[in-house]
Amino acid sequence: MKILLVEDDSMLGDSLLRGLTGSGHTVDWLRDGALVEAALQAQDFDIVLLDLTLPNCDGLSILRGLRARRQTVAVIILTARGDVADRVTGLDLGADDYLPKPFALAELEARIRALTRRANGAADILLTCGELQLNPATKEVRFRGQPVVLSSREYQILTALIRRPGAILSKTQLAEQMYNWKADIDSNTVEVHIHRLRHKLTPELIRTVRGLGYQLVEE
């Protein structure tokens, strides 16, 4: 999951960065609200975690601008403003969820999974493609009924592919699912992880579309 964290509190931001990264997400962290629009134009994110009290541009203004530009990225507001009126305002402006501070990381991750299922039009927690199953809640992967042990990078690539079965994802799109802005990425990193996934699953499951990228297909 590619997440944009917008939070000016250094202690909370660092805690969320470590916690979400440790759960297998790729997180880019901004402390300045004025940088959000440029970040969303530069990369695709699955979810924005948005604080309301930010320097230079408050969270509600950011949210209002996102929806005015028809950007449909999911937004979860994270804020100390827990009054009902504040929640109503945030939701009416286009937030997908609202989580008052303080909150438990486990609850935030559950809300992220729920939004992801909703975005994919699926009530079932399992992501499937043919005989391949992936459970985002437990990080368990099964193929033909048998558990498959993956590295965190392999899991991130497979998750990106299985969320859009049949779609062609470029190397750049897959790399963005694995690394944040600060990472120094080798040119063949994606190919190496794809090769390992094919070895652990089956070569026919991930198809190379020459010049475009990779595609997850049923056998």
Short descriptors:
single chain; 5-stranded parallel beta sheet; alpha/beta; elongated; 2 domains; Arc Repressor Mutant, subunit A; 12 strands; 219 residues; Rossmann fold; 4-stranded antiparallel beta sheet
Structure description:
With 219 residues, the protein is an alpha/beta fold. The protein has 2 domains: 2-119, Response regulator (Rossmann fold); 127-216, Arc Repressor Mutant, subunit A. The chain is built from 8 helices and 12 strands. It has helices at 10-22, 36-42, 59-68, 84-92, 105-119, 152-162, 171-178, 189-200, and strands at 2-6, 26-30, 47-50, 74-79, 97-100, 127-129, 132-135, 140-143, 146-147, 168-169, 206-209, 213-216. The strands form 3 sheets. The chain has a 5-stranded parallel β-sheet, with helices on both faces. A 4-stranded antiparallel β-sheet has the order 6-7-8-9, covered by helices on one side. Helix 6 (152-162) packs across helix 7. The chain is elongated. The model has no long low-confidence stretch (mean pLDDT 88).
